[in-house]
Write a structure and sequence with these properties.
With 255 residues, the protein is α/β, with parallel strands linked by helices. It is 43% helix and 15% strand. The longest helix is centred in the last third of the chain and has 19 residues. It binds phosphoenolpyruvate.
Length: 255
């Protein structure tokens, strides 16, 4: 089995002023800034990217954004482009988060355009997929995930596929305190690995990290991270406080 380095990414969402963000990341760098056994990414709001990026200089922690526009520049009031993120030394970008899909009408086609633009600009996309509670109860989880994944990755070449990170985030588990069981999570992660194999071949699919997201906490992380296709976590609530995020990184390092 290919060994994949675990990845823990913090999605700070619309939280923290730039000063609060800098204070948090200073604590993180002090605790895990030399962590090499696990890849660590923090995704602050746009307004804090520059300040957080400066604190991260020389550390092993990477900088990510939570969204981007697919065009490089132009008349798109309020938007931020991939080259702008690169200029702030961001290396990752979360795309297709369920909150973007639900509150801002992002479709699979739009997510795909963003993903292709991210890859073109050497940003590693963290492509989020996941079913709602109604979809799970209707028995359509795998179908929903397949549609989101295949549409999101449409047109991605084999050469660029290894830059992709997938995050399986059951919508009903995000910010709710309800975590998927390890069986539920591993079933979908294994299914995603199978889809990636069909798309890009086995060797590549074995290298792509598939993160779990949805109320991951230090208490439930070890069991989830022990599953064979769970390669890390995309963390919302527990990334807003240094102690819990550091504990999650340490839990991943112990695997
Ligand atoms: C998320 O929004 O990506 C997420 C996983 O949030 P939480 O950890 O708070 O459920």
């Amino acid at each position: 089995m290919a060994s994949r380095k675990k990845l823990i990414a913090g999605n700070w969402k619309m939280n923290k002023t730039s000063a609060d963000a800098v204070a948090l990341v200073q604590e993180l760098v002090g605790a895990i800034g030399r962590q090499v056994d696990v890849d660590v990414v923090v995704c602050p709001p746009f307004t804090a990217l520059e300040g957080v990026g400066k604190v991260l200089e020389g550390s092993s922690v990477k900088l990510g954004a939570q969204n981007m526009h697919f065009e490089a520049n132009g008349a798109y009031t309020g938007e931020i482009s991939a080259p702008m993120l690169r200029a702030l030394f961001a290396t990752h970008v979360i795309l297709g988060h369920s909150e973007r899909r639900a509150y801002f009408g992002e479709t699979d086609a739009l997510v795909n355009k963003k993903l292709l633009a991210a890859l073109k600009n050497q940003l590693r996309p963290i492509l989020c997929v996941g079913e709602t509670l109604a979809e799970r109860e209707a028995g359509t989880t795998l179908k929903v995930v397949q549609t989101q994944l295949e549409a999101g990755l449409d047109g991605v070449s084999k050469e660029l596929a290894s830059s992709i990170i997938v995050a399986y985030e059951p919508v009903w588990a995000i910010g709710t305190g309800k975590v998927a069981t390890t069986e539920q999570a591993q079933e979908v992660h294994g299914f995603i690995r199978g889809l990636l194999t069909k798309l890009f071949g086995e060797a590549l699919a074995m290298r792509v990290r598939i993160l779990y997201g949805g109320s991951m906490k230090p208490a439930n992380a070890p069991e989830l991270l022990a599953q064979k296709d769970i390669d890390g976590g995309l963390i919302g609530g527990a990334s807003l406080e240094a102690r819990s995020f550091v504990d999650l990184v340490n839990a991943a390092a112990a695997k």
